[in-house]
Write a structure and sequence with these properties.
By secondary structure, this protein is an alpha+beta fold. The protein is about 30% helix and about 35% strand. The chain has a six-stranded antiparallel barrel. The protein has a two-stranded antiparallel sheet with strand order 1-13. Strands 3-11 form a two-stranded antiparallel ribbon.
Length: about 200
């Protein structure tokens, strides 16, 4: 028969401490698991809300075709002169009026448009006039799509060649006479024409 060892008070305290630690560790593990599950449920809920919102936006958007040949009126935002402009310089334009296709607004007034200087000639002696032209390249649709355009805004200075040549017969100083500079005023309007067909998504159409 094995000898009986009496359990002292200190041994009892150690046993109680061990049980308390085991309960604490088990409870902590359950708490951490519960927190992870709650976090997963929260993330899944957010993902579901995002998916629902995306579906609603997609369902409310409608694809609209902008036919080739559709006219888009644009305007300049600043004055441009043949004296100070540079060849191939990019020019910021703005859509001057709403564009509708089958009752749906596809390009809004005030939307950005773009162009570039594609012809430039400064005035010279003998009354040669200046020339300037801006190519109309694109306009932004309501969904942000840049719709390709073709068109031009152009200007030429006053032609003084005839009067200058006649005057030069009597006074050579007339040879120093310069022709007028060409300029396009701020707010000048021109027509851009849609190249080919363009497809855009119109929200709420």
């Amino acid at each position: 028969m094995a000898p009986f060892h009496r359990t002292g008070r200190g041994d009892g305290i150690r046993i109680l401490d061990g049980i308390s630690c085991l309960c604490h560790c088990t409870g902590s593990g359950r708490t951490q698991s519960t927190v992870r599950e709650a976090e997963m449920r929260r993330l899944l809920g957010l993902a579901l809300l995002v998916a629902i919102a995306f579906h609603q936006v997609s369902a409310s958007a409608r694809e609209v075709k902008i036919p080739a040949g559709t006219i888009v009126v644009v305007q300049t935002l600043r004055a441009i002169s043949s004296e100070s402009a540079s060849a191939d310089e990019l020019v910021e334009l703005q859509v001057a009026a709403d564009v509708f296709v089958q009752g749906v607004r596809v390009i809004a007034a005030g939307a950005p448009a773009s162009g570039a200087i594609d012809e430039l000639e400064a005035s010279e002696m003998l009354g040669q006039e200046g020339r300037i032209a801006i190519s109309i390249n694109s306009a932004q649709a309501v969904d942000g799509t840049n719709v390709p355009l073709t068109g031009r805004l152009s200007s030429r200075g006053g032609d003084e060649m005839t009067g200058t040549v006649v005057g030069a017969i009597f006074c050579p100083l007339f040879l120093l006479n310069k022709g007028g500079e060409a300029s396009i005023a701020s707010g000048a309007q021109g027509r851009g024409i849609v190249i080919g067909e363009a497809y855009i998504n119109v929200p709420g159409a």
